[in-house]
Amino acid sequence: MTDPASERRRMAAVLSNKGVLKSPWLRGAVEAVPREQFLHPGVFLDEGRTWRPVTALGTDPDDWLKIAYSVDTLTTQLDGHLTADQTGEPVAGVPTSSSTDPTTVVGMIEALDLTADHRVLEIGTGTGYSTALMCHYLGEDNVTTVEVDPQVAARADAALETAGHSTWTVTGDGLLGHPHRAPYDRVIATCAVRRIPYTWIRQTKPGGLVLATVGSWPWGTGLAKLTVGEDGTAEGTIIGRSSFMQARAQAVTPVAGDLSARTAYADSERTALVSPLALDEWMPAFLAQLAAPGAQFVCAARSDGSPLRYLFDPERESFAEFLADGESWTVRQGGPVALWDDVERALVAWQDNGSPGIEAVRLRVTDRSHLYWIDSGPLLRWEHRLA
After folding, report:
1. Long-range contacts: 77-85, Cβ < 8 Å, 24+?
2. 254 pLDDT exceeds 90?
3. What's the pLDDT tens digit per position in 119-131?
4. Which of 98, 130, 243, 318 is catalytic?
5. Residue 193 pLDDT grade (very low, low, confident, very high; cuts 50, 70, 90)
6. Residue 377 lies in a domain
7. Residue 322: CATH number of its domain
8. Which domain holds residue 123?
9. Active site includes 318?
10. Per the domain annotation, does 383 fall within a domain?
């Protein structure tokens, strides 16, 4: 029978060889914390159009450990309620909670630059595995974790107790932080947010760090690392790509229904200067979200199979429809905001300035706005005012 401790050491070695796991203390935590205990009652494995439920009780112990110590994201809940022990057959559904892949978990914890005396607020407990890694080093009294889903929070709390960490597990809206245990040296979010909540900045000590994924699309999102200043603002950079489930309070309802009806009446029509296919790439998609916050990118096809692309902004009642015309695209726009004009302007300016990577993006957060910019060009600047 496979030894769980040897699997933990093997996973630690994999993460170390990938250059993600660097700190001795974190390697010690990875080798000590039993990830399999944080996957109760089971996981869903992706089989394309369906998810196959797998539970510890119904799986060979060696196979279960191989799943637990893979470096994959393991989905633990579908559609906000379904867990693997509640069905014996593959099912369709949308993931709503997971154990994030260890590469991402460890990489984010490394980016926190923790020292043993730090107090941490974690937004999005999930299974509790990342919470346990930090508790192993900081101690349970220095880690506060907030989870919006009561069932997920209860399972995580039970797993943390079993692993020996009676930490502060709070059920609530993580976008509000947790003021009762503030101030914190570090805030880390394991969900994506459209913008960094100012409550997180306010609950962080001057000189402290806030680490969170910004963006509302499943791709084209970035990991922001901000340092909080004495004046109550925070500034930093996008340190790399990142992809997480959206915070539930900010989750976007996908555009549905008859798309042709939604785009029947356009105010303008022209040839696009930039192909909408650029938005399939990470950095252009990130820029599109800066230039048109609130917009959703939708891919579809005509009955003959020819591609269709759309941008919809339900809040501003605006759209852009893209029609393939040989090697070029026609863009039809409607509503009070010319969405593609804004996105295209950003993409052209970015291309004219050498197409810098996502790590070139800087961010400043105040109680009134989010300001993004890239130093290489005056047109690469976007300010999102808060209502």
Report:
1. 77/149, 77/151, 77/152, 78/44, 78/51, 80/149, 81/151, 83/41, 83/42, 84/41, 84/42, 84/43, 84/44, 84/53, 84/54, 84/55, 85/41, 85/42, 85/53, 85/55, 85/57
2. no
3. 999 999 999 999 9
4. 98
5. very high
6. no
7. 3.30.160
8. 4-85+96-241
9. no
10. no
